[in-house]
Amino acid sequence: MPASLDISFVSSAPLSGGLALALKEKDGEGFAGAASLDPQSVFAKAAATAKFTGKSLSTLDLIAPQGAPVDRLVILGAGKGGDLAAHDWLRLGGTALANLKGAAEATLFLDADGLAVDGRKAADLALGMMLRNYAFDGFKTRRKDEDDKPASLRIVIVTAAAQEAEEIFRTDALPVAEGVLLARELVNLPPNILGPVEFAEKASDLARLGVEVEILTEVEMKALGMGALLGVAQGSARPPRLAVMQWKGGQEETPPLAFIGKGVVFDTGGISIKPAAGMEDMKGDMGGAAAVLGLMHVLAARKARVNAIGILGLVENMPDGNAQRPGDIVTSMSGQTIEIVNTDAEGRLVLCDALWYCKERFKPSMMINLATLTGAVLVALGNFHAGLFSNDDALAEKLLLAGQDSQERLWRLPLGKDYDKLIDSRFADMKNSGGRHAGSITAAQFLKRFVGETPWAHLDIAGTAMSSPADEINQSWASGFGVRLLDRLVRNSFEA
Ligand code: BES
Ligand code: MN
Ligand code: ZN
Q1: N or C: which end of the chain has fewer CB within 10 A?
Q2: DSSP H helical ranges for 189-275
Q3: Model-level pTM?
């Protein structure tokens, strides 16, 4: 487990030794808390000698001379106050947490001249600390006391905006942190521990936050005619589940927003089996479902004033004597038939029934699905943008903006008739793969055949949900990508 993290806010703090951190605006006067931390200006002199300007995310680690009110001071460059966006406060928080230098307690002074710290900024910084503090180490048996890191951390944040910060932190930033960390944890968990049934139980846990949760079993999905989803699941010894979550925070008559996630708990490729090298990464093929669950947690925990549906298609894609074959033709819930030409193109088969079910049952005002859908999106965009596909320019625009705000970035890719033709089949209404060329686009075209007129967007997060480079706010294999993005979308565009 990561060290437990206790963050509190105070408007002033008595100094009694130990570690202090203090923000400094780039080229600004002094640093936060200088009056109490540095009565003799020795730290200020050291910083000037080191030519420390306060460049964004730079740090200066100073051991205190005798007589100073703290043992150690880390000055943290914040950059130019006027340029700081919400995400910069997250990064600052992450960098602060990374600079605890082994201490179990630290005091963090925020109110540097020029930064205009308010409750929101302070809470965002605290959120950055929570995100940075996450580590997936529950399966390491080396004991805590053999570790050089403390098992618990106590951070006291000093700012004049303490009261407002505390309120925003508790009711807003903390729920977001929980949602992101939940998504990361699910993606990191090994596939023997997290099967479809176990994942569905995680969805059921949201009931305690007031989310209505239904779990559909194989029998019910069969009755609904979900032949595409069930075809994927039939090679696995572990039965599939469809989790349906409803958060009713808006006006009763307002049609809901809907979020649908691909939850392939492990993707071997099935009979079209994947190569051995790197196959272990396919434990993360439920990153879309993890993001949707994380988002539903956030919306419920912060009591978002929206109606939202979350649907998770939970299956395992395995090869066995009962597995689906290339050449099989399945009938989806929509009635459209699908020729399976590659059993490794399974995500779209799971999603097509989940999307259709969602549209028919809930008549949502829009649907957004998230999926680790194609390797091709990694070829196109690497780890730095998720692929965005949409039949609705206004929705796409909103998503792109939310991507900029959250720095969970999206890049829009095209849809069109020519691409759609590539998945026409000789034997059925469509086939489940259009081949190598434009692989991410043909996958999106496939999904588009199941959304009707509903405004819809598909986010291909194969490159961003896992294995993304470590940064200020995430050091773990799983990123939790999509939770902050969609929370931001909901706030910006759908909450009054
Ligand atoms: N889960 C994979 C996509 C994937 C690849 C996710 C790498 C994360 C990292 C998906 O089910 C898949 O296998 N897609 C195939 C589709 C092809 C058979 C048409 C692919 O991308 O190769
Ligand atoms: Mn696959
Ligand atoms: Zn897959």
Answers
A1: C
A2: 196-204, 218-224, 227-233
A3: 0.98
